[in-house]
Q: What sequence folds into this?
């Protein structure tokens, strides 16, 4: 059951907002949150998919689901979601900033407008929505924010230069805010998945056909790992044993080596 309702909150269940909820990790996060007893506010451009998901979550878990269609690159539509986050009459217990996309290829060959749009969504929208959500949570002394980053943010990533840079920003920013609000009853966590089977690859224009199965995770296990980490108060969640090793090596090895390894993986990723 989807809705565009406004007014004083009547639900006694916790309420979670998820951006980029129409597919992939965002959809998996919405499903996991509903299974854990949350009502939902789901945000994406594709309202048809959101309506279908809302009906499924209501039927399966009894969740009340509010649908907000928004392109978060558009300042006016982003402002609409910011206003929902700041609505004191309808407080949100969890906010998941998942919306994002990646461009793939040599930077000088890519249309610059696409990379600018990528920065606006992956960085600017996430920062503004985190800010809008955090204020009310700090005042209440409760709440949680999960920002979705990537293993690509652990080192410079050739052929995904802008994407890796935006995710490095998300990881650094989120960990800093985590420290700022620690002890205030508010939890802020960054989720850093590796290769995950979603529509991301298709939208980025890469088949990712040459990577072995062991390198991949499924979206539901990534979603569960992120929400478990948020519940435990962790600053960083890296799902999967192989990804944890990769993250550790990225921190421990010289950047000259890690960026070459990342570049090689990027070529394999493109298939």
A:
């Amino acid at each position: 059951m989807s809705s565009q309702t406004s007014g004083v909150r009547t639900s006694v269940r916790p309420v979670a907002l998820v951006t980029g909820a129409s597919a992939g990790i965002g959809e998996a996060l919405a499903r996991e949150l509903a299974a854990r007893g949350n009502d939902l506010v789901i945000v994406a451009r594709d309202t048809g998919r959101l309506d279908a998901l809302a009906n499924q979550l209501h039927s399966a878990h009894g969740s009340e689901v509010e649908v907000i269609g928004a392109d978060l690159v558009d300042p006016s539509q982003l402002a609409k979601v910011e206003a929902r986050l700041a609505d004191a009459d309808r407080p949100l217990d969890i906010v998941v900033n998942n919306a994002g996309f990646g461009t793939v290829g040599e930077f000088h060959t890519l249309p610059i407008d696409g990379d600018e749009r990528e920065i606006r969504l992956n960085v600017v929208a996430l920062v503004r929505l985190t800010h809008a959500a955090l204020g009310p949570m700090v005042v209440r002394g409760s709440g949680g924010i999960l920002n979705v980053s990537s293993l690509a943010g652990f080192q410079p990533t050739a052929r995904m230069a802008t994407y890796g840079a935006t995710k490095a920003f998300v990881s650094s920013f989120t960990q800093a805010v985590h420290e700022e609000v620690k002890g205030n009853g508010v939890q802020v966590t960054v989720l850093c998945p590796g290769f995950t089977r979603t529509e991301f690859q298709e939208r980025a224009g890469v088949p990712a056909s040459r990577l072995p199965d062991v390198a991949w995770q499924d979206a539901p296990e990534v979603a569960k790992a992120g929400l478990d980490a948020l519940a435990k108060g962790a600053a960083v969640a890296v799902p999967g044993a192989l990804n944890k090793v990769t993250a550790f090596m990225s921190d421990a090895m010289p950047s000259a080596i890690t960026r070459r390894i990342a570049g090689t993986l990027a070529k394999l990723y493109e298939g």
About this structure: Strands lie at 2-3, 15-19, 39-44, 65-69, 94-97, 143-148, 186-191, 196-197, 217-218, 236-237. Confidence is low (pLDDT under 50) at residues 1-9. The first strand starts at residue 2 and ends at 3. The domain at 12-270 is CATH 3.40.50.720 (Rossmann fold).
